[in-house]
Sequence to fold (859 residues):
Amino acid sequence: MAEAHPVGFRWVMKAKERGATVIHVDPRFSRTSALADVWVPIRAGGDIAFLGGLVRHIIENDLFFRDYVVHFTNASCILREDFRDAEEGATGVFSGWSGEQCGYDRASWLYQGDGGLSFPERDLTLQHPRCVFQTLRRHFARYTPEMVETICGISPLLFHKVADALVAASGPEKTAAICYALGWTQHSKGVQIIRTAAILQLLLGNIGRPGGGILALRGHASIQGSTDIPTLYDVLPGYLPMPRGDGSEATLRDYLAQQTKPTGLWHSLPAYFISLLKAYYGKNATPENDFGYDWVPKITSNHSFFEYLYDMADGKMEGMFMMGQNPAVAAANSRFERASLSKLKWLVVREMVEIEAATFWRDSPEIEHGELKTEEIETEVFFFPAAGHAEKEGAFTNTQRLLQWRQKAVDPPGDARSEAWFMHQLALRLITKAKQSNDPLDEPLRVLDWWYPEDERGDPKMEAVLAEINGWYTVPQPNADGVVFGVDRAGNPHHGPQIDGYPRLKSDGSTASGGWIYSGVLGPDKINKANSRNSKDYLGHGWGFAWPGDRRIIYNRASASPDGEPWSDRKKLIWWDQVQRKWTGADNPDFPVEKSPGFRPAGNESGLDAIPGDAAFMLHEDGLGWLYVASGLQDGPMPTHYEPLESPVHNALYSRDTNPAVHWFTRQENRFAPPGDPRFPFVLTTYRLTEHHTAGGMSRFLSHLAELQPELFAEISPELAVELKIANGDYISIVSLRGAIEARALVSRRIRPLHLNGKTVHQIAMPFHFGSAGPVKGGATNDLIPISGEPNVTIMEAKALTCNIVPGQLPRGPAFDDWLNKYVPKGGPANLHPEQPAAGAPCARAGGGHGLEGKIDTR
Fold:
């Protein structure tokens, strides 16, 4: 966090100054480790074993926050008799697995009884053998400190030091927070790693309370915003599921029947979804045409980045718009990515500098090696200069769900334009062309309500966009002074007054909202709350706007005991005011304000009326925090340790090595080494440098930052350096089954060998910011990374793989191919790993096997 998120880490240091204990778990000793109280070196990919060991320790020693766990989590819920844990027979596979379909039938994971997820059968004593608590206890029973040492290389002494510190910082008087970044997400079981952290925090009572939580350290200033108002293929704004194209959601009625939950906040999905359709299509969306539902694109398969990358490589894609990313450096198996770009007919790149994706056809490593020839590449690249963040206005949303507005400082130079300008002007042109067409395929463009007012440069006014996202009443009406609330580009009345929050949204077409969770940011008072800078309290109310409803701590009903009293005076946040008969406190309640703690539903209610007064997690149908995920995940209801897809060892816990539901993306250019392959004996993990930003487009081209970190390097331990006869600063070549790159050796005690069950395992660590463009150049570390897809979100495994190190520089020119063939012979089967499916098998691609079930329920 100190290295990659230094501004945020300032607050960690302030907490430390006030007595907080900082624990850092990382394969390498970094700037964060240097400022932590405890550093825990771990083998990359062993996170679930470590966290699972902590879960076991807390349960077996009765250290969990019992009143919190009993009332606020699903620990008491009874599971079905036909559920089988992955522990049974130590197979690593849960009930419902189909090898042919490469996925689970998840019916056996549900709660027992006819109440579904809404009204589960519960045993508040936590003694029923099939309750979630006892199931969780059995599941993690073998995750002992000794097993943690075997898998992770963490000694029992250090393990207990962490466990004691974590427990001591939790309870009624104290809380602990967990911060993570790509070191947890970029794994073949990344979602389940974070799930294990959620289990840990729920057991300790650290969710929904001040100083607690799980904080995702986002890789950009508005990555949270890019999932809220998404750049993802399978969700719509506000985490509404994208309709499916398999026939099950052919009509609006079908979609709402499939996606509306009977209880909890998602029972109001029809209001959120239909208001979104009204924002898209305006007056063209009517009850008679299902509010334009037929115009909404439908998912027909997995449309993730890697899927269309393969289509690109196979000549099935003509063109691509590339904005805000550089897959020629940043994406997994970037060597293959660059080769795939050469199969396009056209490529639009919007950037501030000529990144590798814009210049691959003339100066990529493949050109230098002779693998690609410029004169044979037909891809036509259109480069559009882009505006920087200080040259445009709009909102960032950070990991705290906090919208913060930024003003434009200066106009962008020359022909540089903002993303908003580009998309707005492109839309105007496409809509004009569509209106000249009678093709039914163009109808969704013809009916778009593209109303946005412009400034003098042709940029859409971003506060108008924010107003639409916030939502409004759809009928234009003047206020008491005769002023119309919303007007379009031509000055015509467009819409009615703004709504003041998502509870105002309706399913009858009377409201529109481009993103229901942001409702309230620009309400009827017309004050852009994202632009406010008047902090009133320690939670920051008055500074920006946190969705939903400016609640600074989500699930904050859990900050009070089941009877509504604060757990302690030190940690009080919201509480039940018996005199006023409502929830009050330092934050806006994330709970129905007038629902008393003693309310109990009869079992026939719907929506929020069905949520008990002591159930803090109203997004779930049962109102409970989930220690066990009965519905929504593809790879199991409880986290399970699997080895990375490339590992130096076999799985010490289960007969299966890898996550059975993972997407391998089998292909000759994307092979995986089998466990313990002697050709690739070392573990490789990647990380970021403070001085560079992701693929380097915003940092490598700046002379002062390039000078601070001018060259790619690989951190290796002194022990490994002696073994390979490498001196600090020597050139070395790092090889995987995907390719090879060159770097300098940084010999340092910051990364140390681990001893796993009698075997010494060496790890190396490399930054991934370098490429072939700009003032400083270097190998793209992601050339070494395989393309793979975690089962729920299709993210690649970039933080744990295997490699070899060869002293010396790589050969130049065509000799590179012969050299690489020596260490990575061409030919042979594409599925070298024994658990990897053959190319063409249903499990080989994300689009097969799981099909439409491959998408996570992001709610």
Notes: The chain is about 25% helix and 15% strand. The first strand starts at residue 23 and ends at 25. Residues 847-859 have pLDDT under 50 and may be disordered. The radius of gyration is 27 Å.
